Each structure stands twice: as C-alpha cells, then as structure tokens.
Amino acid sequence: MKEKKQRLFFALSPDSSSDDFQHLARLSAQCGIFGRPVITDNLHITLAFLGMVTDEQAAKVVATAGQLTPPPAFSLNLDTLGYWKRSKVIWVAPDKPPQALLTLAQQLKALALHCGLEQESRPYKPHVTLAKSVAKRPEPLPQVGKIDFHFNSFGLYISKPVSHNGRQGVQYLQLGKWPLGSQ
C-alpha cells in the first residue's frame, strides 16, 4: 500500500485583523484582475517548502522545529511589487529583508534537509504571492503603498485541495506554531 503524503511548508502568516493586512488583501484583489487572486486566507510568506511529506517525516519535522533556537521577532516592510514570468505570479516583497527573516528561512531549510527532505538550491526570496496565472507583466504594476507587519511566530502549514466557487484550489491550514525569540 502506498503511504499517504501531505504537502507541507513553513510560513509566516500576517495578522489578518490589521489594517495592513486589509491593504494587502485589497492589493491581491487589484492584482487578481490580471490573473487569479490569491484568496485572503492563503496570503503568507513561505519560509521553507517541504514538499510531499509522510506522516513519519512530518512528526520528525514538528519535533525538530520545537528544538530550534529561532532568531528574534522582527518587523517587515512589504514595499516592492514584481512579476515572475516563469511562475506567472505577481508578488509583493521587502526591498531589504531583515536578517532575522533570512536566518529563520535558513534554519528551516537546514531543518528540512536534516529530516531528509529535498530543498531548492536557488536563493531565498521572501515574498507574498498576490495573483497567479498572470500571462504577462502588467504595465504599470499597481502601487504598493505602505504595508508593515510584525512577526513573533512562524508556523507549519498543510496545503489541502478544496473546491471554491466551482474552481479547484487549495486551503492552507496551520498544523503547528512556534514563537520567535525575544528582541
């Protein structure tokens, strides 16, 4: 019998009750006219994509994550809007990511490798995907404005297939949450 696998990733989830999150959601809807907007509940910053993971591997990931000495909590300014032609997405990202964010992503990538999960070799580029299936770069891209978030924890998420308004999609559900260090 083939072992069941689940698609997992570590991520930062912005505070959905904040004004900045509402601004982020409006920006996603605005960018969505060029393709398919990311549903509001799925807006996040991926730290490490783990891929298809068995229950045994997931248990090891959770146990190992609990042993990390994470960097301190940090603030993040999303101020740069862009488009990736290969993946056909519009994204918003920090022009200058804080070192704590980069350190956390590196720790989680090392954790994944330690747990036997392959990781991409390309450099980490923190971002929030706003719209998918965008055929070409819109000109001009919408203005970002000021979007600031403070993060004091990170989470492990599962990507679950769902049907939304007759279309297939995914829903991200948090499986675990860990605090960042104190500043």
From TrEMBL:
Enzyme class, first EC level, given as a word: hydrolase
GO molecular function list: 2',3'-cyclic-nucleotide 3'-phosphodiesterase activity; RNA 2',3'-cyclic 3'-phosphodiesterase activity
Residue positions of the active site: H44 (proton donor), H127 (proton acceptor)
Keyword Hydrolase on entry: yes
Motif (HXTX 2): 127-130
Catalytic activity: a 3'-end 2',3'-cyclophospho-ribonucleotide-RNA + H2O = a 3'-end 2'-phospho-ribonucleotide-RNA + H(+)
InterPro entries assigned to the protein according to its UniProt record, in alphabetical order: Cyclic_Pdiesterase (IPR009097), RNA_CPDase (IPR004175)
Cross-referenced SUPFAM superfamilies: LigT-like (SSF55144)
EC nos: 3.1.4.58
Residue positions of motif HXTX 1: 44-47
Keyword annotations: Hydrolase
Residues that span the membrane, as ranges: none
HAMAP family listed in its UniProt record: RNA_CPDase (MF_01940)
Protein family: Belongs to the 2H phosphoesterase superfamily. ThpR family.
Listed PANTHER family: RNA 2',3'-CYCLIC PHOSPHODIESTERASE
Function: Hydrolyzes RNA 2',3'-cyclic phosphodiester to an RNA 2'-phosphomonoester.
Name used for this protein in its record: RNA 2',3'-cyclic phosphodiesterase
Organism (species): Photobacterium rosenbergii
